[in-house]
Design a protein that fits this description.
Layout: E1 6-10, E2 16-20, H1 23-35, E3 53-58, H2 62-74, E4 78-84, H3 92-95, H4 127-141, E5 147-149, E6 151-159, E7 164-171, E8 177-182, E9 184-187, E10 227-230, H5 236-251, E11 259-262, H6 264-269
Helix pairs in contact: 2-4
Length: about 270
């Protein structure tokens, strides 16, 4: 049925109502029925007349890239917008640049099933190699046309009457905040994207250089330094050997004067 047409709506309690075919009003009818505890009304329409759907996805990492590939391939009549706070796709692999960053499951398993890379240079590929793979996939499928880079999601609220999500988005370049709305909201922001400094008394009294693995300062050198590492996650096994290897090759083993690993759990429980 054309969107502007008037239809007879079958209401499950046995009554019938004339309803306008407008999408917003149909949604209002559905919301009203649901709030009454009734089943949503049925609408007549041709089987190939796909309802227009707007999808807003937040995040352009591995998940967001996949959304930009699969949704347009598999869903009809959609408008897809992906808001990404960074200037490029990749998420984890765009942001994490500490020495030795790499995956900790075999690379043959850490890739899209439909874009199999048989040429990984290492069993556990480095972060830059994974990022190059993601950029190649992004280029091949033209995902950037759906992306709004340097746009940060600030919040979302569901409007039941309209059947829409309302978003608040900040354009990080202009500083302007604006609203958008969609039928479907996909959060692909990653569970590890919001990094934090450890909460340790006196932490900020330390006068030396403090760096976080998730926001690595590329200018940091390890030579002639006492280095303390807080935390012992999987990345420890990557950047510690990488840092030491760089140090040893530059200065010789003697350059390692002191290396202390403070296990965060131990600190918090002592
Ligand atoms: C160092 C490291 C190594 C890892 N190794 C492995 C591994 O070996 N195997 C494995 O399975 N997993 C690993 N992971 C987990 C990894 O995060 C996931 O595998 C995967 O990359 C997550 O992809 P994603 O797209 O869901 O999220 P992310 O890659 O985190 O991407 C989220 C995106 O959302 C964006 N975003 C977040 N908040 C907002 C906002 N408010 N507004 C706009 N954009 C926003 C971010 O900028 C980012 O681009 C590792 C993680 C790290 C940090």
């Amino acid at each position: 049925m054309p969107p502007s047409a008037t239809a007879t709506e079958s209401v499950p309690n046995g009554t019938h109502a004339e309803v306008d075919g407008d999408n917003a009003e149909q949604h209002a009818g559905i919301a009203a029925a649901l709030s009454n505890g009734s089943l949503p009304p049925l609408f007549d329409h041709p089987i190939d007349d796909y309802r227009p759907l707007k999808i807003v996805c937040i995040g352009g990492g591995i998940s967001g890239i996949l959304a930009a590939i699969r949704f347009p391939q598999r869903l009809k009549n959609i408008e897809l917008v992906i808001y990404e706070k960074n200037a490029e796709v990749g998420g984890t692999w765009f942001e994490n640049r500490y020495p030795g960053v790499r995956c900790d499951i075999p690379s043959a398993s850490y890739q899209y099933t439909f874009e199999s890379n048989t040429q990984w240079s290492e069993y556990y590929a480095s972060g830059p190699e994974i990022q190059r793979y993601l950029l190649k996939v992004a280029d091949k499928y033209g995902v950037r046309k759906y992306m709004r880079f340097r746009h940060q999601f600030k919040g979302a609220a569901w409007d039941a009457a309209r059947g829409k999500w309302d978003f608040t988005i900040e354009d990080l370049d202009s500083g302007n905040t604006f609203a958008d709305s969609a039928d479907i909201y996909i959060s692909a922001t990653g569970i590890l994207n919001t990094w934090q400094w450890p909460k340790i008394d006196g932490f900020w009294d330390y006068k030396g250089k403090v760096v976080h693995s998730a926001n690595w300062d590329q200018s940091v050198t390890w030579d002639d330094k006492d280095v303390a590492v807080i935390g012992a996650g999987t990345l420890l096994s990557a950047f510690l050997p990488a840092g030491l290897a760089a140090l040893c090759s530059a200065e010789g083993d003697d350059a390692v004067r002191h290396l202390a690993t403070h296990l965060l759990r131990k600190l918090l429980t002592s």
